[in-house]
Amino acid sequence: MADNTNMLTPSGDYRAMQRYWAMSSDILGGVESMRKAGKKYLPQFPNESSGNYKHRLRNSKFTNIFRDITENLSSKPFTKEVSLAKDTVPPQIKNIVEDIDRAGNHLHVFAAEVFQAGIQKAIDWILVDHTRLPEGATLADERKMGSRPFWVRVPAENMLAVYSDMIGGSEQFVYARIDETYTKREGMDEVEVPCVRVLVRDPVFDERGKTINYGPARFEIWEQVAEPAAPGKGKSVTWQLVDQGPITIGIIPLVPFYTGKRTLGTWRIAPPMQDIADLQIEHYQQETNLKSAKELTAFPMFTGNGISPPLDKDGNQMVLPLGPSTVLFAPMNEQGQHGNWDILEISAASLEFLQSQVEAIEAHMRELGRQPLTAGSTGITQVAAAFASQKASSAVQAWTYSLKDALEKAFKITAMWLGLKFEPTVYVNSDFAIEIGSDKAPEVLIKMHENKVISTATLRDEMKRRSILSPEFGNDEEDKRLEDELPGEDDDADLAASLPPDENAGEKLAA
């Protein structure tokens, strides 16, 4: 690739999703990010002065319902630990699970971050990388360096371009370009260095120029370098290749996790949270308008009917003070006539209407977010609320299965790096639908047990499943504890203590 090519240029798929990613990032950034975006999300009214708009923007109100909904949805599968389900997990893999990303994060923590980002941004990526070894390094050197595979989370916004093709009957990645811009310290200063990682499999052509296969994967690392400015010219910026080499497992070790519908033949994903994000912007605007209207009600507009505006010494109209501790006069003319001061204020009905609009948008957002809704605050019946909650569980369960599949693919690539034959089975909790409307479930289960419909072990398993019992609860250990609590065989002292008292005991003692 030529040195003067802009490596940060995104693909068409990236540009198609860029608006949503930017909007969701601004929303997740909170009120300061929304205010910083200015007119992008809070338009200036026609004929509104710049000063008034800046005041309205500076005091805008933002309730982050989008973040609340997405965090609530993404937390459901992680009430129980994500783990490898088989006991026959190789020791090398077990060690990696405890520190999956070489930053001290357990698989559970890493998976939770991927899952939340996948819901909020529609797609997230896992790069299964390996510690770079110097050429000619031995196995002893590798162990000394702690060289091993590790996982890297690649946010959607950092995946500048990605392409896949059918190879050997399955879809495989043939090109990826990742933004890995970093900050380095130079003395007391921090310098941002644009950096891009390219993963590529070169196409193999037939005699007619048609792609018939792809070569083994390789990588390139490019950094942007600013050349010294020539006399009379600006500083030139070029991209230089700073590292390259083969990817020894032969494939591009990328795994996608996405929650929306993928457009066939592309990596464009329909964001499942798109409608909620759009409503969040409308909610922000309406909530800010309501706040501004309340402020105007507290400081109403005065009108002077039949009163000439006062002028300063230069003949310019003066600006009258408003607010408490201000006295207004209505001068009387020679005929005894005088003007009147009056107040123009927003009616209570207008404020109530704006408030109802804000509440309606919030209710719509939460319904779209498929969260449990109470009839008192939204006007939705308990049956409808339960139905919305069940839909929520169905949606999150589908995403949970996709996450499980992505994690298992990542472990397969990890095993390839280690030269192991390993078919991973990852446990991700998807059994959270029972939490919905299950208040009486424990009582029903206990009655079933009393009526000999289910066994004690099944009762315990169901209680554990509903998080009434601890995840560490074990049937065998509990049976042993119960056995220990049973009374043992009676000895002579126990038998004597159980006999009724002897009425003649005192006489016998005296004799």
Automatic annotation (TrEMBL):
Residues 468-511 are annotated as: Disordered. Residues 272-418 form the DUF4055 domain. Residues 485-494 have a biased composition (Acidic residues). InterPro entries: DUF4055. This is DUF4055 domain-containing protein.
